Amino acid sequence: MKEPVTIALDAMGGDNAPQIVVAGANIARRRHPNINFIFFGDEPEIEKHLSKFRRLKEVVEIHHTTETVKPEDKPSFVLRNGRNTSMWWAVNSVKVGQSSGVVSAGNTGALMALTMYQWRNLTGIDRPAIASFFPTLRGETVMLDLGANISCDADNLVQFAVMGEVYSRTILGIDDPTVGLLNVGEEETKGNDSLKEAAEIIKEIDFPGEFVGFVEGNDIPAGVVDVVVTDGFTGNIALKTAEGTATLINGFVREAFRNSFMAKIGYLFAKHSLDKLRNRSDPRRYNGAMFLGLNGICVKSHGGTDALGFATAIGVAVDMIEYGGNQMIADHIARLGLSETRM
To answer: For 171-215, how does the pLDDT look when each residue is reduced to its tens digit (9 = 90+)?
Structure first.
């Protein structure tokens, strides 16, 4: 029997909160019977949805607050004025030991600011990074940073590589992840100075995974490596481009099958295969961006997700907690001497 895990939920964060938060928690409870939850938010609103799930109520505690972080709120404003919001209290619960991790579908910038302010970084980590995983031709691939750091130096990229390797082991269960630095070409002469220096550092240290060097943008969907490392500016653009392309292709497919009566007949024959494709590319299966490098577990759910997607985000937090992801990162950083020689 696994040890109980308590997850703090920002019940008021996201487009359809608290409904999808409560329903998502119920799905996660069935998947992970050892979970307990602390909901932070408007208690009457939470109770209204919680009343539908009798078993879930047995593992839930509610911390009442009526204040919330709005999508348009700037991180600096939340740091100054958000001390009684559901997001603040959820993050604080990890700091004071009430919970082991937090999940929120709220304002990304505010959530990053609050976790950095309240938890600080892991020893040896200069900057936290946002990491997530998505489908490729070979399975799933982790990519970081996805927007936390617009520009990065070589040390940042090396730290991201270590964190991404641990994340791949923890979340995807890959024993010896392959890691690549995203570049404009595979040749060692290409790229900026930070990329070249990061590659040399990784080659010199006893890197825990298999470093394959530079990879290009088209290598990402091909699944050439298990972990793609880049700065937050490039990573966020790559992610949004991939999401937009997937939406475009899905739209083209739907349009093609609506063009004629014969196309609609063809859809009936192809429906089973199309359902498999839809399930394989369902963004809810990959929901949950991890804030890596912080002295705590925080998962950011997509704000517009549904209950199934939110449950996936909770599962990411549970896996990082149960498999000791943060401790693994800290151990690797210390063993490699990165916290001493390159800080």
So the answer is: 888 989 999 999 998 888 888 999 999 999 999 999 988 999 999
Q: What is the dihedral of CA 213, 159, 316, 73, to 10 degrees?
A: -120
The amino acid sitting at 118 is Q
For position 341, what pLDDT does the model report?
Answer: 44
C-alpha span between 101 and 92 (Å, rounded): 10
Identify the bridge partners of residue 179 per DSSP, sorted by sequence position.
Answer: 211, 227
The Cα–Cα gap between 203 and 326 comes to 23
Query: What pLDDT does 106 receive?
Result: 95
For 269-278, write each residue's pLDDT tens digit: 777 877 777 7
- What is the spatial distance between Cα 12 and Cα 94, in angstroms, rounded to a whole number? 18
Helix boundaries (H) for 190-306: 193-204, 219-222, 232-258, 261-280
Tell me how far apart the alpha carbons of residues 230 and 92 are, in angstroms, rounded to a whole number: 30
User: Residue 4 carries which DSSP code?
Assistant: P
Of the CA atoms within 13 Å of residue 271, those in its CB half-sphere come to 5
Torsion of CA 119, 124, 128, 134, to 10 degrees: -120
According to DSSP, residue 169 is labeled I
As a whole number of angstroms, the distance between CA 305 and CA 282 comes to: 11
Q: Starting from the edge strand earliest in sequence, which strands make up the sheet with 101-104, in order?
A: 60-64, 35-41, 5-10, 101-104, 298-300, 289-292, 129-136, 139-144, 227-229, 178-182, 210-215
Tell me the two tokens of residue 277. 């494709």
How does pLDDT run across 118-128, given as a tens digit for each residue? 999 999 899 99
214 forms bridges with which residues in the sheet? 181
